[in-house]
Amino acid sequence: LDTILVDWAVWDDAYQFLRSPSRSFVESNLNDRTVASLRLSAVAFLDPRGNTVWARGFNPAKGSEAPMPEGLGRWLAPGTPLSHAVALEDRVHGFLVLEQGVFLVGSSPVLRSDGSGPAAGVLVMCRALADTDVAAISERLRLSVLVHRADAPLPPEMEVAGAASLGPGES
Fold it and tell me: What is the pLDDT of residue 170?
């Protein structure tokens, strides 16, 4: 996700869009087909103060606009880690647990194509963590990886593993 994020954020067209938002940029670059091909669940452009200039949710499986993932909005508010970046080194990327599940998320300052600033704002991209992503992480780590919400009951395979790791008399 970080590679796609930086490719879009360090781009004269995105820089100009934040300086002067236009329908033509959205129609040409943020259409359903393009966003679906990137497997994005949400895209947001924020101004330098962290206010939303443009944001949309998407359903990449259907290739169409959808509501923003529930709870993402509070992470896009001014003053949050995703809403403020002035240099490429300020990028934020990681996992975010929302109501619908686990998401890969990243934010980057929007700079000119040559990497110069000042930043016109911040670009945030969000992608639902799919089974294929977990498989890729497992392969890269050469470990079995299972992603599960900590606030939900354990799946059977984790209960067995957890019980096997306990010593006699431990619970």
Answer: 57
